[in-house]
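Please produce the structure of this protein holding magnesium ion.
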Amino acid sequence: MVPLLMRSRSKTARQRLRGKTGFTFCNQGTFSIHARGCIAIINSSYCGSVDSVKPVFAATSHLQRKGIAARCDSRQAMHFLFPSDPLRTKRPDEFYAEEVAAVRSAGFNLSVFSFEKFQAGSFQAFPPLPVATVIYRGWMLSRREYERFAAAIVGAGATPFTDTKSYLLAHHLPNWYPAIAELTPETRIFPVDTDLAAVLRSLSWPEYFIKDYVKSLKTSIGSRISTPEQAETVAAEMRCFRGTIEGGGCVRRVESFLPETEQRYFVLDGVPHAASGHVPTSVENCARRITSRFFSVDVVKRVDGVLRVVEIGDGQVSDLVGWKTEQFLYLFSRFAQQN
Ligand SMILES: Nc1ncnc2c1ncn2[C@@H]1O[C@H](COP(=O)(O)OP(=O)(O)OP(=O)(O)O)[C@@H](O)[C@H]1O
Ligand SMILES: [Mg+2]
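Below is the modeled complex.
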């Protein structure tokens, strides 16, 4: 456990933590230093006012002068946010229960919010968001929804780990495609009202993979088609099953991939990570070229043995395909330690 120097104006916080190993309480303007010499600031308005932070810096340099290492537990500066159960809005959605447990046991704090109420126009996190950087883990959000979501986080006094521009950079194919065009199947992008059958006739490829800016069609005839006329069915089914076409249409050249070879990688703050084995060069290239702070990269082996990027996705809304939850959380623990 990290020994703590506490300066809390919150009586309840003091009462809650009193007696736990390693905590030392200080009243406003005074500090005592824990024997093991590490510092964390816990304050009901954490880093909220210059006055509350200044004396801690003073205490830190005092420690440094004494040659004692001081560090802040930056886990408190990161806060996770999950969708709640639709009916019991103070509990996490069952789908994320395992990940929520892993977040807690990794020492991070979290809040939940009703995704349904957010979609209906109101955002309320429980417990309320602290002054911290917020990492969302949850359902995909459209461009408009994410803009509103990021603004709501800022409105609550916190900061989104991923701003709207970064979210869309990884979430929308036309944004990431130009950066890695030679690593992924050739793709043409079209506005939503395009006559796709006419487009496909002019391309005259042997097969086509059709999706919108975000998702393929998983039902009906699927996304992989061989005649231009089928494109209208794909578009119509997407509208029917998903309610909308997000952004526009993407027509991708079909490549022959080996079954069961797709793997998901995560890039956090420029560093690529693998669930198992090493990180391939193509993922390192993605990490260098795509500036979003947190995204996933799906890589598959083509029949000729070349690794191809199938898709980039925003890390907050990517499933943990092939990753253990603890392993995923370890990325953030390491990140928190290093920042
Ligand atoms: N250009 C392509 N050529 C051949 N197969 C493809 C191509 N693009 C995608 N696929 C196959 O279709 C699958 C789904 O594609 P993609 O990931 O782009 O859509 P998605 O809707 O995000 O699917 P998922 O939710 O499974 O990730 C890929 O895992 C891959 O096996
Ligand atoms: Mg995918």
